Amino acid sequence: MNDAGAPAIKQAAWAAVGRARPHESATLHVLGQATYTDDIAEVAGTLHAALGLSSKAHANILSLDLAPVRAARGVVSVLTVKDIPGTNDCGPIIHDDPILADGKVEYVGQPIFIVVADTHDNARRAARLAKVAYEELPAILTPQEAHAAKSYVVPPMRLARGDAETAFAHAPHKVAGKLFVGGQEQFYLEGQIAYAIPGEDKGMLVQCSTQHPSEMQHVVAHALGLHSHHIVVECRRMGGGFGGKESQSALWAAAAAIAASKLNRPVKLRADRDDDMLVTGKRHCFYYEYEVGYDETGRILAAKVDMVSRAGFSADLSGPVATRAVCHYDNAYYLSDVDIRAACGKTNTQSNTAFRGFGGPQGAIAMEYVLDEIARTLQVDALDIRKINFYGKTERNVTPYGQAVVDNVIHELVAELETSSEYRARREAIDAFNASSPVLKKGLALTPVKFGIAFNVTHLNQAGALVHVYVDGSIMVNHGGTEMGQGINTKVMQVVAHELGVDMDNVRATATNTSKVANTSATAASTGADLNGKAAQDAARQIKERLAAFAAKEYGGEAADVRFAADTVFVNAMEVPFPHLVQKAYLARVQLWSDGFYATPGLSWDAKTMNGRPFSYFAYGAAVAEVVVDTLTGEWKLLRADALYDAGNSLNPAIDIGQVEGAFIQGMGWLTTEELWWNAGGKLMTHAPSTYKIPGVSDCPQDFRVRLFKNRNVEDSIHRSKAVGEPPLLLPFSVFFAIRDAISAVGGHRVNPPLNAPATSEEILDAIAFVEAAASRA
Description:
By secondary structure, this protein is an alpha+beta fold. The strands form seven sheets. The protein has an eight-stranded mixed sheet, with helices on both faces. It has a five-stranded mixed sheet with strand order 7-15-14-13-8, with helices on both faces. α10 (318-327) packs parallel to α11 (360-378) and α11 (360-378) crosses α12 (382-389). The longest helix has 28 residues, at 528-555.
């Protein structure tokens, strides 16, 4: 070699992580060639299933006449609860969620029977022909009603620190009130679907759109009365999940498998959008009653909140969702004396479930609402009140549940965004605009985010992976995470490529499969890349160590000095192409595959005391939103949004920025346009795109500025990166409070508008009317 320093330069300049790389399936998505569950070529003899649903919210089934269903065109079989060979349950924690109703229905849309026919349309048409006689029972539909009746799916929980009662009594200023924040439909582009294919010796392959293949394996095995080893669940990709396919894909997988087992033929169950929305749970809506005491500067001295969610008819994941809401009530603020109570109201509605943020957004927004009230009451900019209450670095830095905040960057992050967004100058400009604009009012808000990363349940924080290096030097990786568009496969491929020193194009990720990596956790809680990336890195590291030892033996030098980069192995001042070394290692019988495992260290949680260290670290962020509101119609528009997010040492800035953008718009939809409405009979009336309004392209701001905050995780996460799945969903709090700020301008910012979420045009008009009436009396 002519330049002795060239190898070192070549190695230092090369990296597979920290680079903006396209999504591994981007080309397939664009060309329409990406295979989703419904695209899988159907096996000969495949049948199609549909579910027969309840039309009552709460009733005993007096009689069920399925003769018209069986006589319908194309129908092969109709199955009821009596045809389930194993356990009639698909509940993920508490086993209170039947696959098919057994004598009683508890919400409109609850499955009662399964129709199996020759086509999807025939099955769905036949399912509507059943004649069901009901004895209706009293129904509870709202969380307020459930709370009043002490109707809960799990016991209420409480987190207390200090003496909130005494601190509140001695506080010089107090604020109290009520708030309602609605739920949200996941509205994944690909609906719920499962395709069950019977195999030999009671075996069953279930291809389904799920965030939790191992849970689907367990549910199907229990439903069929078999062992887990009889069942293989596979998922190559989902067309979105957002939490809605964490536990609630189980019903569809179980129903398809029951039918396939009974008939010994492949059965596909694909939910129509209306059926999907009627059957499945959503983000939990929350009702709050709060009391907060504070001093003359706006610093909180005592905080009390009683929150109750609409859990639905069964527990599902409502308990963990409430736990996370309790643990995120503080958001980015130190609360010395608190009394936080949470209950999961049992209602005769769909069993609500996971949704991006998993209770965190519902907990944090209540505190943001209070701070917004304090600021307006004291006639101080809300940003200044937020800053006063931020967690400290070395003091005032322990959460109500006892975890020290050791990675606090909220001060620097907010200061950077305040400057880059020209917050103060824009505030002055908006005040001037509002003073001369009687109809259109502008609003501005900057809100922060502190979000804990890890499953609250400690044992779920584990992952496994397999990495195979083939003789030609190409690499295959399989892990327990599931791809739902968020880019987990891309990031894991980058991690493996970086560890083995090869270009990412030489790495391929395969479908998540329970026969490859077993006992996996759900891809949820923003832990997908953290857990599975670490597991894959562990597997690749073992292979690299074997190859390094072989290279040192073959070419001389020490194994510890061998380096892998740029598709090259640097050993004893020589450069060996990676494929060449692999081929020689194979001939020397070196193991070229390995499994990997990772368990997040340092976690603890006592569910009884609600104390411990439930999170590995915190992700931070902040956003500024500027809106304009038409006070005559309640219409509004987001004019500009600035977001700054702490992704740590980002594995892939392009994917992370995309995730922040998507989360922002999705969260904005939750808080503004996406209204769930049940009629008096308990039927969800917003069960289709025609009646349920998610944001469209025209709702996105023309001026949308998203950046990643320069930071490095203090915890030993995968390459010191931070999660980016759920935390950014809290950034559009800024939109909600900007709308509230605009409404407040109607009364000269002297009145706190009573604004619930979603802030629909009707809700906005109601709040404007309240402000106008209050201002006129002042």
